[in-house]
């Protein structure tokens, strides 16, 4: 297939040659092209009413290597460039609208997660972190920044934790886990192959796996012993949602606060030791906290 060919044109031109299921998929995409861009393979298959394998075969039949390349091609035709800039359709034409767009989107995302985050799973995650002999914090790309922030927070509590930044180091660490340890894997999509390899490693070693993702249909959700779901807003939000980062950072902060409440005096002593160590490196008169 030539990359210059229109995805919608290809589907339209082949419509009479499709089987009944293929025609059902094709007609849905032609009627709702924008709605077919954002869902995962499973989400779109469920919406149309076909199996994932049927949808995947359809994508291959019209000339694409996989579902991802199909979505990119379809998005090129259906998504206006400004809509892919941030998590909303609103255009930021000046400083005021940019500020309003970002803050309104993030506030809405935080309100959504505050109301939907599963309290039982959250409390179970806190207990697992506190009870573990050691906690490992894994993430890749932007999700790796969330894992590093968790390390920065949890280190204050006195909990033994580690957050290797390199994927190979994370993979090596996953191979050495034990059943009395806990792993928190952060993955925005929940379907990144490297993140899933880390999850598989944790499961094979019997460690408790906490998954944090924004995709409720992701493979990571099925693998996790404890799930912290930071569901993002529905389409037309872009999949690399910036607001997801804000909500996941907030979940980490809430975990930290809850852990400190559980630890009580032990946690306060850890904070005191940390502050004393850092204060020795401060310039005189600087009373801020790291």
TrEMBL record:
All copies of domain SIS, residue ranges: 125-265
InterPro entries found in the cross-reference section: Homeodomain-like_sf, HTH_RpiR, RpiR-like, RpiR-like_SIS, SIS_dom, SIS_dom_sf, WH-like_DNA-bd_sf
Key word Electron transport present: no
Entry-linked CDD domains: SIS_RpiR
Transmembrane regions: none
UniProt keyword terms in alphabetical order: DNA-binding, Transcription, Transcription regulation
SUPFAM superfamilies per UniProt: Homeodomain-like, SIS domain
GO terms for MF: carbohydrate derivative binding; DNA binding; DNA-binding transcription factor activity
Protein's name in the database: Transcriptional regulator, RpiR family
Organism: Alkalispirochaeta americana
């Amino acid at each position: 297939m030539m990359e210059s060919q229109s995805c919608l044109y290809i589907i339209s031109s082949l419509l009479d040659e499709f089987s009944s299921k293929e025609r059902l998929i094709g007609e849905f995409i032609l009627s709702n092209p924008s709605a077919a861009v954002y869902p995962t393979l499973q989400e779109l298959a469920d919406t149309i009413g076909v199996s994932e394998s049927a949808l995947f075969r359809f994508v291959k039949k019209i000339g694409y290597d996989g579902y991802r390349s199909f979505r990119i091609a379809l998005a090129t035709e259906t998504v206006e460039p400004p809509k892919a800039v941030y998590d909303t359709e609103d255009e930021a034409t000046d400083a005021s609208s940019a500020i309003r767009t970002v803050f309104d989107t993030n506030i809405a995302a935080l309100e959504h997660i505050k109301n939907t985050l599963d309290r039982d799973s959250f409390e179970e995650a806190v207990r697992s972190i506190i009870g573990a002999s050691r906690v490992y914090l894994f993430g890749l790309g932007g999700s790796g920044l969330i894992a590093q922030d968790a390390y920065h927070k949890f280190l204050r509590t006195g909990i033994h934790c580690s957050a290797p930044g390199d994927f190979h180091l994370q993979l090596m660490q996953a191979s050495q886990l034990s059943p009395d340890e806990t792993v928190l894997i952060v993955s925005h999509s929940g379907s990144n192959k490297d993140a899933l390899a880390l999850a598989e490693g944790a499961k094979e070693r019997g460690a408790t796996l906490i998954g944090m993702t924004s995709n409720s249909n992701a493979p990571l959700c099925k693998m996790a012993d404890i799930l912290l779901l930071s569901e993002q807003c529905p389409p037309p939000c872009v999949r690399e949602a910036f607001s997801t980062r804000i909500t996941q950072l907030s979940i980490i902060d809430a975990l930290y606060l809850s852990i400190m409440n559980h630890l009580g005096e032990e946690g306060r002593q850890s904070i005191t030791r940390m502050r004393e160590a850092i204060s020795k490196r401060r310039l005189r008169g600087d009373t801020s906290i790291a």
